[in-house]
Target: Hydrogenase nickel incorporation protein HypB
Amino acid sequence: MHHVDVHMEAEIYGANNRLAEHNAEHFKAHNVRAFDLLGAIGSGKTSLIEKLVPELRSRGKVTAAIAGDVYGDDDFQRIIKTGIIAFNANTGKECHLDAHLVHHALDHMDLDDVDIVFIENVGNMVCPTDFKLGAEKRIVVISTTEGDDVVNKHPMMFRDCQIAIINKVDLAEAVGCNVERMIQDIKRYNPEMLIIKTNLKKGEGVKEIADVILA
Amino acid sequence: MHHVDVHMEAEIYGANNRLAEHNAEHFKAHNVRAFDLLGAIGSGKTSLIEKLVPELRSRGKVTAAIAGDVYGDDDFQRIIKTGIIAFNANTGKECHLDAHLVHHALDHMDLDDVDIVFIENVGNMVCPTDFKLGAEKRIVVISTTEGDDVVNKHPMMFRDCQIAIINKVDLAEAVGCNVERMIQDIKRYNPEMLIIKTNLKKGEGVKEIADVILA
Ligand SMILES: Nc1nc2c(ncn2[C@@H]2O[C@H](COP(=O)(O)OP(=O)(O)OP(=O)(O)O)[C@@H](O)[C@H]2O)c(=O)[nH]1
Ligand SMILES: Nc1nc2c(ncn2[C@@H]2O[C@H](COP(=O)(O)OP(=O)(O)OP(=O)(O)O)[C@@H](O)[C@H]2O)c(=O)[nH]1
Ligand SMILES: [Mg+2]
Ligand SMILES: [Mg+2]
Ligand SMILES: [Zn+2]
Ligand SMILES: [Zn+2]
Model:
């Protein structure tokens, strides 16, 4: 979060949280379960959607997604190729989604036949934690190529999410990443956190994530 | 940048820019050349410092560094192992360094015998661009593992920096990254940009970067 005056900060968060609750009610009214996808740039958030959609479809579930990015529609284009409905939410200059942008997306999405909505945030390990969006759970996706200090550097992210995905396990050796250190750091910040290791290029670990999401 | 009122935004940037100019004068007074290192989480900013320090030392140059991170001293510990002086600047909750944090760091660093200062920012492709720090040039480090859409998604970063380093070229194939697309996107946003491809794990491309920095 940037330097802003304390009162202003409280106002921004207050307004955002009210709208996040409204979004949560919106999901509930449509019998939809919503999940945030947070994480660093390129950690594998869109890959996760690409792999989860067919897995959930095979279990009879219809998915939709909101693609959050500063600029462009790269993720949106990849997501709609999976055959689901999606909305492209560009933040322009902001480094995170907020409840207002998600609310706007919901205005454009017909959720009547949808079971699950994924909200992919902007790649950023800091600011998105401050802005609730209305999802029932927050999933943080990190990857080995970010270095094994990525958890230690971002305590708030791991305290704020319920599920952690450690992606790109196939590249751990190539970057010299000690996955065990990451796991220990996660447990230190959030002992309750569910941790799943994945190779989302190959789809390894996706069934386990689907199990957790549908639990 | 987060939603703040327009006047407040102008005030924040105005105050920051004045302090950035003061930092620039501080560097000048000590005959020091300063370079910002920006980029996504884990792109290779600290690796670049680790590899550049001995290369610059072999050319008779003394380096120092400011290690910017939200939390912890992982980067600081790696940097001082190269034998240079450094300062650990934790931002706490902020997603970027600002000129004030850098000014504070300079208060703690004896620059008398130093030729070059690297200012490693928090891993973030959005917010650091809004905050000048007083360096003469900004270097953005991206890596193939972030995906080849990372440039397209972050226009401001590439308009704001003068040198782009495309790191982890050894992993391009493993993630399916088209490096040529990255280069084309960079040229579209900033035709003047200097682009250097590296494998900073092995030190490939480091001599070229040293040439550019000392030019
Ligand atoms: N080798 C390997 N590559 C992966 C894996 N997961 C994702 N990738 C690749 O990593 C790059 C980034 O993946 P994305 O899914 O676009 O990551 P993201 O988190 O959506 O990225 P942003 O939305 O830009 O922040 C792409 O080139 C993927 O193909 C993995 O487990 N192993
Ligand atoms: N294979 C390979 N690994 C690399 C390369 N460059 C860096 N790495 C590894 O990538 C991980 C992250 O590198 P860092 O230098 O810590 O990246 P950073 O930009 O300083 O990261 P933050 O400060 O956390 O944002 C580390 O495990 C490095 O060893 C490269 O060119 N090839
Ligand atoms: Mg994505
Ligand atoms: Mg670093
Ligand atoms: Zn921010
Ligand atoms: Zn001063």
Observations:
- Chain B has a mean pLDDT of 95.
- Residues B 45-46, 75, 120 surround magnesium ion (ligand 4) (CB under 6 Å).
- Chain B has one domain: 6-214.
